[in-house]
């Protein structure tokens, strides 16, 4: 589990003209709560587990900027993105439905597109957002590759059953975005508009907020 408050959202909004926040995987709604501190025009969160989505809907029912989807991340993205205007910060954290809540095992869901929907999410974003300068932050990089993560490498029941790599992110966004990695927590992959070394050098210096 990662934490969006590790990131300097104020800087991201300023430097890339971000208008919207789109989260996949609502859980307790803490990321939505954090996003409300910033001037996003729209804050959208998709949660596939009904009881979790219902709790988040109740929590944020007075917040006009917030929309909670009770749907898979793929359905929510496919529904919202065709009409979503303005640059967007995507926080992609929709894997292992119900596991963090103790409602299911990490490998309980056999459909890999639901258990680990990241490739499908990125494909949908790429399809609909080619003319925008979006930022994408992907949680749990350790699911896709080993590394010196603060919390260690991924347990065997969380990794993909087939090919295990993050190549699809580079295939989809390699021509338009620079890829930055952090090994904090369970690992993050940040896709930033621009594919040159200057982007990586300037943005990675103070990517995270201090703890």
What does it look like?
There is one protein chain. The protein has 211 residues and is α/β, with parallel strands linked by helices. The chain has a single domain, classed as Rossmann fold. It is 29% helix and 19% strand. It contains eight helices and seven strands, in the order αβαβαβαβααβαββα. Helix 4 runs parallel beside helix 6 and helix 6 packs parallel to helix 7. The longest helix has 11 residues. It is globular.
The CATH fourth-level homologous superfamily: Vaccinia Virus protein VP39
Task: Provide the residue-averaged pLDDT.
Answer: 86
The CATH first-level class comes to Alpha Beta
Q: Which structural category do the helix and sheet elements fall into?
A: alpha/beta
Q: What integer value in Å does the Rg equal? A: 16 Å
Largest sheet: 7 strands, mixed
Features:
Rossmann fold, 7 strands, alpha/beta, seven-stranded mixed β-sheet, 211 residues
Outline of the structure:
By secondary structure, this protein is an alpha/beta fold. The chain has helices at residues 9-16, 30-35, 50-59, 73-80, 112-115, 118-128, 167-173, 197-204; strands spanning 18-24, 42-47, 66-70, 87-92, 135-139, 177-182, 188-193.
């Amino acid at each position: 589990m990662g934490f969006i408050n590790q990131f300097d959202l104020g800087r991201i909004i300023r430097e890339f003209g971000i208008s919207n926040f789109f989260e996949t995987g609502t859980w307790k709604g803490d990321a939505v709560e954090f996003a409300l501190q910033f001037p996003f025009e729209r804050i959208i969160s998709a949660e596939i587990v009904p009881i979790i989505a219902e709790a988040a809907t109740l929590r944020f029912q007075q917040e006009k900027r917030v929309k909670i989807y009770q749907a898979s991340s793929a359905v929510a993205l496919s529904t919202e993105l065709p009409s979503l205007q303005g640059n967007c910060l995507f926080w992609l954290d929709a894997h292992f439905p119900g596991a963090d809540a103790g409602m299911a095992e990490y490998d309980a869901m056999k459909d890999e597109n639901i258990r680990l929907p990241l490739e499908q999410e990125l494909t949908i974003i790429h399809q609909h957002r080619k003319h925008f300068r979006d930022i994408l932050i992907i949680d749990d990089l350790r699911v896709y590759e080993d590394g010196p993560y603060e919390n260690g490498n991924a347990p065997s029941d969380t990794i993909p059953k087939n090919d295990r790599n993050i190549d699809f992110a580079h295939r989809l966004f390699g021509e338009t975005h620079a890829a930055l990695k952090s090994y904090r927590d369970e690992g993050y992959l940040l896709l930033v508009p621009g594919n040159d070394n200057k982007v990586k050098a300037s943005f990675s210096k103070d990517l995270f907020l201090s703890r």
